[in-house]
Write a structure and sequence with these properties.
Elements (H helix, E strand, L loop, with lengths): L4 E6 L5 E2 L15 E5 L36 E3 L4 E5 L9 H14 L5 E4 L3 H13 L3 E6 L4 H9 L3 E5 L3 H11 L5 E2 L8 H15 L7 E5 L4 H16 L8 E7 L4 H7 L26 H10 L3 E5 L1 H15 L5 H16 L8 E5 L8
Parallel strand pairs: 5-13, 6-7, 6-9, 7-8, 10-11, 10-13, 11-12
Antiparallel strand pairs: 1-2, 1-3, 4-5
């Protein structure tokens, strides 16, 4: 492991936990754990992958389970508008980042099998990284998940179970019926997927010549990326790379499943479960994000906002952005583009603002 890794601390109650053994959530309050480091100045170096930032990752690159994830392109889509195209990752989505770190740490700490519920992309990434690690994988997905996601998991050798309902129902099914000896790498129910996702912020900083944008538009399901980038900004300040300024974070959800948007509008401290979640942007169909309270904190602290996009706008927006840029835009990326246009129209985003929009994965798996 990285010798700079100093411990794990609960995001909610600050209880310390031992990083030398497998950990899930806080043993005191059941909330997600944060990875802590003794941060030391460094200059990113090495190949164009997320492992350029090894000094702020929990495991050394030579010990990692990697498919060369990360350092995806930041593509210009306007004079001040950029798209971070996460479709270029292994398995075609940003989930590769988190799963590389989660699987690396799980294997290093003795896990013998892995399990997770998923809306689609996370299951494919887990199946691939589990295969690379030589660890058996079991996943559960909603039974209406597009066929490409299901076949992807089977292609990598994972055991796949289809469950009526949402990712929350898939999680309940696994808890009751999944293999007893498998380690759960669900979103924010282990500490290290956040560490992979936070590298998106480090990359943006490097790709923008050691500066940050004015706003980041991020489609939000479980919220690991939002939490990760917010965490990364704090680390960058401690490293002396930036001052107290932060990009305004924007959480984008679908009107049929918008617990973060609802919580933000209500100025709540935590999100509440969303009843009967519906959206064909499957990555956004997460009704009960365990890290919802951290997402709300990140939005407030960065003076950001949260928007819910009408379902009828998502597919046309994805097609519009694809035809405008040549990027393979997924529905979640379409939702982000629809929200971006609303923010410009309302004046919340100004023409002079430098804006980064996330396309979180390939659209091919949805067709």
């Amino acid at each position: 492991m990285n010798p700079c890794l100093t411990g794990l601390t609960c995001f909610a109650c600050a209880a310390p936990h031992d990083p030398r053994v497998l950990q899930t959530v806080c043993t005191r309050c059941g909330m997600p754990l944060r990875v802590d480091y003794d941060l030391r100045p460094f200059k990113p170096s090495g190949p164009p992958t997320l492992w350029r930032y090894a000094p702020v990752l929990p495991i050394e690159p030579e010990q990692a389970v990697t498919l060369h994830e990360g350092f995806t392109p930041l593509l210009q889509a306007g004079e001040r508008l950029f798209i971070k195209d996460e479709a270029r990752n292994p398995t075609g989505s940003f989930k590769a980042r988190g799963m590389s770190l989660a699987v690396s740490m799980a294997k290093a700490l003795g896990a013998r099998a892995l399990v997770a519920p998923s809306a689609g992309n996370a299951a494919g990434a887990l199946a691939a990284y589990g295969a690379a690690a030589g660890l058996p994988v079991t996943v559960a997905l909603p039974d209406d998940t597009p066929r490409a996601f299901i076949e992807e998991c089977r292609h990598y050798g994972a055991e796949v179970h289809l469950v009526p309902g949402s990712i929350a129902d898939a999680g309940k099914w696994l808890k009751a019926n999944g293999p007893r000896d498998a380690f759960d790498v669900s979103t924010l129910k282990e500490p290290y997927r956040v560490e992979g996702k936070k590298t998106m912020a480090y990359e943006i900083f490097e790709q923008l010549d050691r500066s940050l944008p004015d706003a980041i538009i991020y489609p939000t399901g479980g919220g690991t990326g939002l939490v990760g980038m917010w965490k990364a900004f704090g680390e960058m300040e401690r490293l002396g790379w930036i001052g107290p300024e932060r990009p305004r974070l924007v959480s984008v959800q679908a009107e049929g499943c918008a617990p973060v948007v609802k919580g933000f509008a209500a100025r709540a401290e935590k999100t509440e479960p969303w009843p009967s979640p519906r959206t064909e942007a499957y990555g956004l169909r997460v009704p009960s994000p365990i890290g919802g309270f951290i997402c709300l904190t990140s939005l407030r602290e960065t003076h950001g906002t949260a928007l819910a996009v009408a379902e009828a706008e998502i597919a046309p927006a994805a097609q519009e952005l694809a035809r405008r840029t040549g990027i393979d835009v997924c529905p979640e990326g379409g939702a982000a583009w629809a929200a971006t246009k609303q923010l410009y129209a309302s004046g919340w985003l100004k023409p002079a603002d430098r804006v980064v929009l996330f396309n979180t994965g390939t659209g091919l798996k949805y067709r």
